[in-house]
């Protein structure tokens, strides 16, 4: 499946002991394709640096960039579907441009997407997505 991970979902899926590590492993193994844009990579870098430092952030971003199971997407149109937190729109625009199956997120701002018929964007919680991988 083609997925877009919001930053919080990425952070929760990387630690080996995390119940959601199956998500990160599914990307590394090629079971799923992670779709990212330059804007998303920038946010990943900033947030991970703040949480665990520059070296770890560099390692994670390098792993993303070097993986053959990651696709760099360039959204050419900005839909601005999320007004409560406009910064979240980078994930929506990437998902639409990538024709992703899901945005994986626990962020309630994405719930508005359930009521927007076009463009259709499916959102799934990190827990529910991890459960689909176990089945």
Description:
With 135 residues, the chain is of the alpha/beta class. It has six helices and five strands, in the order βααβααβαββα. A five-stranded parallel sheet has the order 3-2-1-4-5, sandwiched between helices. α2 (21-29) crosses α6 and α3 runs antiparallel to α4. The longest helix has 15 residues, at 38-52. The two termini are 14 Å apart.
Shape: globular
Radius of gyration: 14 Å
Residue windows where pLDDT falls under 50 for at least 5 positions = none
- The overall pLDDT, averaged over residues, is 94
Q: What's the helical proportion of residues?
A: 40-55%
Report the span from N to C terminus.
14 Å
Alpha-beta classification: alpha/beta
Major β-sheet annotation = 5 strands, parallel
Number of strands: 5
SSE pattern, N- to C-terminal: EHHEHHEHEEH
Major sheet: arrangement of strands: 3-2-1-4-5
Beta fraction = 5-15%
Number of helices: 6
């Amino acid at each position: 499946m083609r997925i877009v991970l919001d930053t919080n979902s990425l952070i929760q899926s990387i630690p080996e002991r995390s119940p959601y590590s199956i998500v990160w492993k599914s990307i590394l193994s090629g079971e799923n394709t992670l779709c990212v844009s330059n804007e998303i990579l920038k946010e990943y870098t900033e947030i991970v640096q703040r949480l665990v430092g520059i070296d770890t952030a560099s390692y994670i971003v390098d792993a993303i960039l070097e993986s053959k199971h990651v696709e760099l997407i360039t959204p050419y149109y900005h839909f601005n579907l999320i007004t409560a937190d406009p910064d979240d729109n980078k994930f929506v625009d990437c998902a639409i441009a990538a024709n992703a199956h899901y945005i994986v997120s626990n962020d309630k701002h994405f719930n508005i997407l359930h009521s927007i018929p076009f463009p259709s964007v499916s959102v799934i919680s990190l827990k529910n997505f991890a459960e689909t991988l176990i089945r």
